[in-house]
Fold these 2 entries.
Entry 1:
Amino acid sequence: MSQTILVSACLLGLPTRHDGRSKTSPEVLQYLREKNLQPVPVCPEQLAGLPTPRLPCSFHSGDGTDLLTGSGRLYRSDGREMSAPFLQGAEMTLTIARLTGSQAALFKDGSPSCGVHGICRRQQRVVGQGVTTALLRRSGLLVYSEADL
Ligand code: SF4
């Protein structure tokens, strides 16, 4: 049986992004085939119960690591704080990792949930990781992005 890996649903072609679109990555699909990995599609923001399409969110302070410790803050573009649902989406994604025995995740970089090397803070791209990435890494999973392939 092939090994499972969590994959950002939008990279697999599912229209889960805040604008209702996907971000299909042929490189990711080819990588999964070549490595004989069984993708488990996850969208932490949909798992948190957020609608699609939805308003974009970005960090006002810190990154996903800081959100886990209570020192970061994440807001929607209309000014509503969204830290709690993003934490919930991260927890749900970790639950799916455990249910499927997944030890790794291949995530879409730049997202406030899935970011691996970078996130958006106050509309600027900065170094940091998303909330779900931070929680999965803290729980021992290997998390990498489409840019690492
Ligand atoms: S939360 Fe992750 S999986 Fe969902 S749309 Fe954003 S980058 Fe893709």
Note: The longest strand covers residues 4-8.
Entry 2:
Amino acid sequence: MKKQIKSKKRVFEHGEVFTNEREVKAMCDLVAQECDRFDSRFLEPACGDGNFLAEVLERKLASVKKRHKNSVYDYERYSLLALSSIYGVDIMADNVKECRARLFGIWNREYRSVCGKKCNSQTVESAVFILSRNILCGNALTMMQVDAEQHDTDLPIIFPEWSLIGSKFKRRDFRLDVLLKAQDKPDKNALFGDKLSEYLSVNPVTGEYMPEPVKIYPAVHYRQIMGAE
Ligand SMILES: C[S@@+](CC[C@H](N)C(=O)[O-])C[C@H]1O[C@@H](n2cnc3c(N)ncnc32)[C@H](O)[C@@H]1O
């Protein structure tokens, strides 16, 4: 069984206790249908080395394999889509590194098992790039990026929203604080002078907040995702 703590010091300083596999699976079972959908988005704040993200990715990839194992083109596109729908934040840089490596290991193992000799190095680079943008080092409470000592910087956490259109991926970047605020009910007075207001508009029909991207990138081929920069 995997260890649930790395050291007492880390438990004391960062509350670092990892969830065991049985609980992770039981919680994922509660949203089993979402875990099977290639494109349903999951965020694990305080992700550690990605216990929940790893389970969700395994389930998504099993679904991609079931439907697309006979086409390299489809398996590549949809397995990248599955990977791109998974997001994590952790305040510890070593956990972020481990989480990216773990998720890459899962994705790559499945890619090799389905596509074998037809595996393509550019597709692998796309997977690595997605993970470098989706699993970030930051403070999930303040939603700011942190430095090597876990202190907040003045840079907000920014996540890409990926969408697959044919053979291309579209990328739009959003601030995490804006995405979360957009789930609130709009309050004109509260919004006035709010530092987030420039990234939120109000839908005239539904009256709900709509988050505005900080950047929109041109669509790129799925094997050249690192070109979305
Ligand atoms: C309780 S563990 C949970 C890890 C994982 N989600 C799991 O269930 O196995 C807590 C994690 O939160 C991280 N952490 C603590 N404070 C944080 C913060 N303010 N922002 C982001 N991550 C934080 C720690 O580094 C640690 O990896």
Note: Residues 8-227 form one domain.
